[in-house]
Each structure stands twice: as structure tokens, then as C-alpha cells.
């Protein structure tokens, strides 16, 4: 029998199997992460659909790796790919839930199947109070970024494009809006017409899922 063919079919022994890198040392972990980072970004981007969100996912992967007992990791690349896929799917599902329901604490949940006129009135009142708070505390640009991000799960890329900002600036607008919500400063008088217009736009978007009109209202305030 051909010994070459026999060798090809022989199962690999321990000596034949390439040694997996040991990443117990942090410097070794950095080296492995750096080598696989491009493929991790590709995995994350394919799932979440946004370069910025993919960057966030991969950064979280690195943080997870640092907190892992790396001495028991036998295949670091496979572990990194698995963590990346799981985190990216969590991000994608979270964004979907924010679009379908309200994820922000100041936005009431959508009414259930047993909705009553009373519950509808309560929800509308809660939205009216929430919108009044946004109008009283935030600049128009901060408000637009915050509502689109926290209320409807827009990516920072999408917000940046709508507001003609950099992605970094879009993130800053949301962060500043969150700070202002918890502050008693920067309070301003609420215009009743603007308040009514934004409440109606928000309720319409929450009911139908059609966000174009809400975008126009928010952007009109910015402009």
C-alpha cells in the first residue's frame, strides 16, 4: 500500500496538532486579540450592520477577555469569535426591541392587547410629561439625538447622518442629554405648540413604527 496515502489518512496525533497559543500572560492575549481583531470586526459588522456598533462590540470582547481565566483557554481565536457573535446578537436584538417597544425609562411601554381608554389616556399623559421634560432640559440637537437613540434604537451612524455630525459628536449629544435629564439646571420655558407637535409625532411613531414624521419634527427644531 502507498505509505504516503496511509500517512494522509492517519488521524493527527498530539505531536501533529499545532500548539495553541497560551494567553495566560496579558501580553500574549493582546497579541492574539490584535491578530484576530479584523475578523472579529467583520463578524460583528455582519450581525449589527453598523461599523460603529461593531467597534463597540469588539471593544467589549476585549474587556471580556481580560476578565476571563485565560489559563484554561485552549483555543483563544475560537473563544473570541464566539464572544463576538454572542455580543453582536445581543446588540442587534436590543436595538430591535428598542424600535418595537420603548427601552428608555421615560418612555412608557406600548399598550397591551387589553388596552382600555383609561390606559391610553394614562400613556398619552406620561408621554406628554416626558416630552415636556425633554423640551425644558435639552437643546434641540441633544433632544433629537436622545429620542432617536434611546427611544427608537437608531445607530450613532444614523443619528450622525441625520444631524450632519460626526459619530463622536453624535455620541456626545446623547451623553449630554442624559446628563441634563438628571440636572436641575438648564431648565427653560416649554413652548406649547412645539410640545403638542412633538407629543403627536412621538405617539404616531410609537403606534405605527413609521419614523419619518418624527424625524422631520425633531430636525425642524434643530434647524
Task: Please render the helix and strand layout as text.
Blueprint: H1 3-9, H2 26-48, H3 51-66, H4 76-100, H5 117-137, H6 140-152, H7 156-163, H8 167-181, H9 192-208, H10 212-222
Helix pairs in contact: 2-3, 2-4, 3-4, 5-9, 6-7, 6-8, 6-10, 7-8, 9-10
Q: What does this 3D model show about the protein?
A:
With 223 residues, the chain is an all-alpha fold. It folds into two domains: 19-100, Rna Polymerase Sigma Factor, Chain: A, CATH 1.10.1740; 117-222, no CATH class. It contains ten helices and no strands. Helix 2 packs antiparallel against helix 3.
Task: Summarize, please.
The chain is mainly α. Helices cover 70% and strands 0% of the residues. The N and C termini lie far apart (82 Å).
Structural class: mainly alpha
The radius of gyration is 25 Å
Ranges where pLDDT stays below 50 over 5 or more residues in a row are: 1-20, 97-105
How much helicity do the residues have? Answer: 55-70%
Estimated share of beta-strand residues? under 5%
| Largest sheet features | none
Helix count? Answer: 10
Query: How far do the termini sit from each other?
Result: 82 Å
Tally of domains: 2
Q: What's the pLDDT, averaged over the residues?
A: 77
- Quantity of strands, as a count: 0
Question: Per the principal axes of the C-alpha atoms, what is the gross shape?
Answer: elongated
Order of helices and strands: HHHHHHHHHH
Can you tag this structure with a few keywords?
mainly alpha; 223 residues; Rna Polymerase Sigma Factor, Chain: A; 2 domains
Amino acid at each position: 500500500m502507498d505509505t504516503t496515502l496511509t500517512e494522509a489518512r492517519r488521524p493527527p496525533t498530539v505531536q501533529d496538532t499545532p500548539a495553541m497559543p497560551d494567553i495566560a500572560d496579558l501580553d500574549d492575549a493582546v497579541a492574539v486579540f490584535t491578530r484576530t481583531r479584523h475578523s472579529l470586526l467583520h463578524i460583528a459588522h455582519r450581525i449589527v450592520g453598523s461599523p460603529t456598533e461593531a467597534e463597540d462590540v469588539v471593544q467589549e470582547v476585549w474587556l471580556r477577555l481580560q476578565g476571563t481565566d485565560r489559563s484554561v483557554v485552549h483555543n483563544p481565536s475560537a473563544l473570541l469569535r464566539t464572544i463576538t457573535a454572542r455580543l453582536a446578537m445581543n446588540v442587534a436584538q436590543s436595538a430591535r426591541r428598542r424600535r418595537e417597544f420603548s427601552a428608555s425609562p421615560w418612555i412608557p411601554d406600548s399598550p397591551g392587547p387589553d388596552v382600555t381608554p383609561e390606559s391610553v389616556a394614562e400613556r398619552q399623559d406620561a408621554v406628554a410629561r416626558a416630552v415636556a421634560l425633554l423640551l425644558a432640559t435639552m437643546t434641540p440637537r441633544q433632544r433629537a439625538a436622545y429620542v432617536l437613540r434611546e427611544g427608537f434604537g437608531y445607530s450613532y451612524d444614523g443619528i450622525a447622518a441625520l444631524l450632519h455630525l460626526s459619530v463622536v459628536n453624535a455620541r456626545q449629544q446623547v451623553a449630554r442629554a442624559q446628563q441634563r435629564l438628571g440636572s436641575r439646571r438648564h431648565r427653560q420655558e416649554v413652548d406649547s405648540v412645539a410640545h403638542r407637535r412633538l407629543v403627536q409625532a412621538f405617539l404616531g411613531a410609537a403606534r405605527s413604527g413609521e419614523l419619518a414624521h418624527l424625524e422631520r419634527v425633531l430636525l425642524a427644531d434643530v434647524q
